[in-house]
Amino acid sequence: TTMDYSTNDSKPTSEKKVVAVVGGGLVGALNACYFAKRGFQVEVFESREDIRQAKIVKGRSINLALSHRGRQALKQVGMEDTIVSKGIPMHSRMVHSLNGTQSPIPYGKKGQYILSVDRANLNKELLSAAETYPNTKLNFAHKLLDWSTETGAMTFVRAEGAKEEIQADLIVGCDGAFSAIRKQFLRQSRFNYSQTYIPHGYLELTMPPINGEFAMKPNYLHIWPRNTFMMIALPNLDKTFTCTLFMPFEEFEKVTTGDQVIKFFQKYFPDAIPLIGAEALKRDYFHLPAQAMVSVKCSPYHLGDKCVLMGDAAHAVVPFYGQGMNAGFEDCLVFNEIMDQLNEDFSAVLPEYTRVRVPDDHAIADLAMYNYVEMRAHVNSKWFLFRKYVDNFLHIIMPRTIIPLYTMVTFTRTRYHKAVKRWHWQDKVINQGLLFCAAVSVAGGSYLLVRYPPNMPNIPMEKLWPRLQALKSPF
Ligand code: FAD
Ligand code: EGU
């Protein structure tokens, strides 16, 4: 038999260091697989109970758009096929106009698509995958209270309120946008941090099947762009759609009765009323309050050789590019690549991870915020359709020169900051192209005028004057 010495799995587990992954959400669970695959002793600490046993999981979005970066990260731990097989491909957006017209706009070439995946299922599958490694232990109902930057000791509160102290060689903070691990970073000198709540909130509504079938075409990301208001719907395996309504909290506050909800939908999303159902809409709209959205940027992502942040803990982004989870998954993949390059030496890997990853995560945070501002400011359905047509058209006539930004972001692993740079460069090329076209038109037109002068009646000046006078006053 042949041995594969290229992997780092050769050391016996007992010699390997202990890695504590704090947070068993999407990124934490995936990270557990990555560290377990390398042979570390992995301990996952999650504040919630085991979601695989819990009945209903409250909290954020029900489904998410999974794209290339996320898939590549899943592939590396052998999870891509499992997840993709339970995802629903979305080949195009379906843009809903106010008058009910639906216009599809493909994401790319045939065979290029994103996937609608169920968040809870994805989380469960990743936790179970992590658990298949004998060197992984999942600790639920462990809420991190604080940790010591001196000793590295973490303090957890258990369900009954009892406290527990735990030590590890490396702490990986995957505890989301309101990270408790990050609190210690904030006390460090030269740590940069910014957090911005946007004025919009979001609300999720379920669109049930009609006669056992999807109420709208299933293989699309449905979108109702209405400037300040926006709705998005992603399909689920149970033939429902999850609609996410985005609008300013100020507007949410104005809608307080069932009748006002119907009035509001009649004005902005009339075609969705019969699909969601007027009665369900009146009820479900008030089921949960609108949720806030926050954008968090910070740097560095590491503290010495002891602790590193990944996923939303390092960079919460607003959901207007469908990249939060994808970027978080790519964090794990990039960290893993650096672990290969630098032989798992934490004192070298952690700073390198910060150096490589901060510019990219900051770039996607900025892009998502830019798209939020853009959509809110002037994106109605006509403008959205127009922009996407122009993007696709330019790409078709100059496939190598002009690549739409969302294509680089969604369907490639082009580093986010490189994608932004290229986007600016493409903008310059397009503008210069337009300027060139304008110049050619003017020059060509002038030439033709001189070469083929139009046959003008030759009127002497003294006869022209009275004519002009006549034009001015018809009386
Ligand atoms: P989380 O999913 O927040 O997980 C953090 C985990 O840590 C949780 O399980 C939590 O219980 C646990 N935890 C928290 N505090 C502690 C503590 N003190 N001790 C122990 N455990 C703790 N992304 C996409 O890629 N595509 C999309 O289409 C998309 N759509 C979105 C739509 C909306 C409306 C929103 C809000 C987000 C969307 N995202 C999307 C972003 C995506 O949800 C996040 O980026 C992703 O969930 C981040 O994963 P995470 O594991 O870093 O954080
Ligand atoms: C928001 C909420 C359409 C899931 C951005 C596109 C999103 C998703 C777009 C949510 C939009 C907006 C892109 C994808 C995706 C588009 C994208 C946004 C999934 C620029 C569950 N966005 N989202 N862009 O191009 O690249 O279709 O909640 F409306 S997937 Cl805001 Cl590709």
From TrEMBL:
GO cellular component terms given for this protein: mitochondrial outer membrane
Pathway(s) the chain acts in: Cofactor biosynthesis; NAD(+) biosynthesis; quinolinate from L-kynurenine: step 1/3
Membrane topology classification: Multi-pass membrane protein
Similarity comment: Belongs to the aromatic-ring hydroxylase family. KMO subfamily.
Classification via InterPro entries: FAD-bd, FAD/NAD-bd_sf, Kynurenine_monooxygenase
Protein's name in the database: Kynurenine 3-monooxygenase
SUPFAM superfamilies registered for this protein in UniProt: FAD/NAD(P)-binding domain
GO BP terms in the entry: 'de novo' NAD+ biosynthetic process from L-tryptophan; anthranilate metabolic process; kynurenine metabolic process; L-tryptophan catabolic process; quinolinate biosynthetic process
MF terms (GO), sorted A to Z: FAD binding; kynurenine 3-monooxygenase activity
Record's catalysed reaction(s): L-kynurenine + NADPH + O2 + H(+) = 3-hydroxy-L-kynurenine + NADP(+) + H2O
Known cofactor(s): FAD
Primary location group: mitochondrion
Localization, UniProt: Mitochondrion outer membrane
Signal peptide annotation: none
GN (gene name): KMO
PANTHER family named in the record: KYNURENINE 3-MONOOXYGENASE (PTHR46028:SF2)
Keyword terms of this UniProt record: FAD, Flavoprotein, Membrane, Mitochondrion, Mitochondrion outer membrane, Monooxygenase, NADP, Oxidoreductase, Pyridine nucleotide biosynthesis, Transmembrane, Transmembrane helix
EC number: 1.14.13.9
